[in-house]
Write the structure tokens for this entry.
Amino acid sequence: MNIYFAASIRGGRDDWASYLEIVKQLRDYGNVLTEHVGDVELSAVGEDLGDDKIHDRDLGWLRDADYLVAEVTTPSLGVGYEIGKATEWGKPVLCLYRPTEGRKLSGMIAGCGGVSLREYQTTRELHEVFAEFLGIHQLRSAVNQP
Amino acid sequence: MNIYFAASIRGGRDDWASYLEIVKQLRDYGNVLTEHVGDVELSAVGEDLGDDKIHDRDLGWLRDADYLVAEVTTPSLGVGYEIGKATEWGKPVLCLYRPTEGRKLSGMIAGCGGVSLREYQTTRELHEVFAEFLGIHQLRSAVNQP
């Protein structure tokens, strides 16, 4: 299974440690196409690559992905853009949100029928969430294979 | 012409005065479907309406729009989501960005071939930008009409 993990880069890197832990957990379920999102070396300036190259490479990965997992606590244009594309393409989308005092998740994400939304406080809680979503997906793929 | 104006709501309302001025300028070119985005009364908590209702109403407006104009200075999941949908649907998209020290626009927006990106410092500069993009669009529509 190919998993596209989306999280804020230029929107802010406050949560990079959570992103790294999420990437580690996702690796139990398949190939994480965007492992660099959890990289401590990756700053809010982003990668040293032309924007059009980043866009086309990432969108290619998203097309190849069986699943989009998006961390949506830090507002990010790129993550929103990818959720818009993935839901349009009929891909399953799991959004992870850590509620914070005085903030509210975007209505376009919270109200999107094509998105499964799970709130969490620590990444430890995500083992169960991934088992529910990605474990079942793995099981289905195995059953459907000859 | 129907214009969908997108800008940050729950991502942060620091720039609401610019949004209001943009809505005022856009009204010269057509019907602005999302005038409330420039409303001073609209806080970062957003509208008092269910998220699924907000999502479905806004996506309906976006489908009806001839043009998406998005202010992308403040990172926003909803704005990114709408740009993702609009580019997928082949709608013309104009993104307005005010460069700020130490920040960089999302690579997914800056590198998206379906987006026309214009940088600005004050909303006064936008008269010319809108005349270029929306004026020509108006002209084309008039020529194509019987």
Notes: The mean pLDDT of chain A is 92. The interface with chain B takes residues 8-12, 44-47, 50-56, 58-59, 72, 74-85, 88, 103-113 of chain A (CB under 8 Å).
